[in-house]
């Protein structure tokens, strides 16, 4: 193969085409841009897809977490338990809502909240737990829900990466009180920017409705019984999401096929370990994750060969602006950052690409006699 034939393999790509354009065109033809018919249809479809009673939207996942925390009516300074291994927004949404994140380590096999440390982390001030369903798999929810019940804590699920993910057969999101899915451009399905909030709780949903729509339940009235802001989306976004929702089964099947191929080609290669797939969760692969003691060198080798990798999350307790918050253990999150590498899995990756990437990885370890 000459260099010219090697196309770069990017870390993420979006499965977007004429189908999205067709639905966007319908909005433009109707001249209806803000929340309208498309948003309503999307809510209905997501309601039946997830099985939750209430579905509403926010402009992005970060604001969906913030809005959900506001709806929970916690007091200023209350603590929320957050895994140390997650995207920054899980913690900053708490801080902007006047709450304090407490960082707890994750399980080294599944990268989700380690319930062995959870009870020890609970203080008088702790009022909520935020499990994060990482990389397209569910947390082990039963121990988390049991502790929440025992200590009277709210559970808000960061399911940003977990649309389509089920825990023991039930869609994640509001196994606790409330939760969200992000439809950001690099998630498994997207609406550009945007997020879905789900709950089964009548009272929470009512609070959400007021908070997200200027303190009223319906637009067009100028008496506002409550305080509220604007967290609405547009029908243009909903049009994209509707089209993406239709593609979800195919997207999932293709991603699973690629991930199973990665598994079979990389098992027993060097010191590579995989994300464990626990029996209580299905898998909607968000990234293909490996860990190795040679993360930096392997990443550089792949980059030289036009394959873009991505590192794991940097431990939240080490983030420059999050150092002052309480934390427990967190050794696993440090190790994961040292060792973790995401390999590309998305709509433009072919099985041939996976073979090429895995050959490069084997070559890397052979050179090191591993
Ligand atoms: C993407 C993501 C978010 C934030 O969602 P946005 O839509 O990008 O604001 C929050 N938490 C996790 C775990 C995420 O992966």
String of helices and strands:
HHEHEHEHEHEEEEEHHEEHEEHEH
Ligand inventory reads: pyridoxal-5'-phosphate
Helix segment count? 11
C-alpha-based Rg, rounded: 21 Å
Strand tally is 14
Strand content: 5-15%
What value does the average pLDDT take?
A: 96
Terminal CA distance reads 26 Å
Taken from the alpha-carbon principal axes, the silhouette is globular
Main β sheet profile? 8 strands, mixed
Strand order in the sheet with the most strands: 1-9-8-5-4-2-3-13
Q: Are there runs of 5+ residues with pLDDT below 50, and where?
A: none
Estimated structural class: alpha/beta
The residue fraction in helices comes out at: 25-40%
Keywords:
370 residues, alpha/beta, eight-stranded mixed sheet, 14 strands, 39% helix, globular, binds pyridoxal-5'-phosphate
Could you characterize what this model shows?
With 370 residues, the chain is an alpha/beta fold. Helices cover 39% and strands 14% of the residues. The longest helix has 32 residues, at 235-266. Pyridoxal-5'-phosphate binds next to α3 and α4.
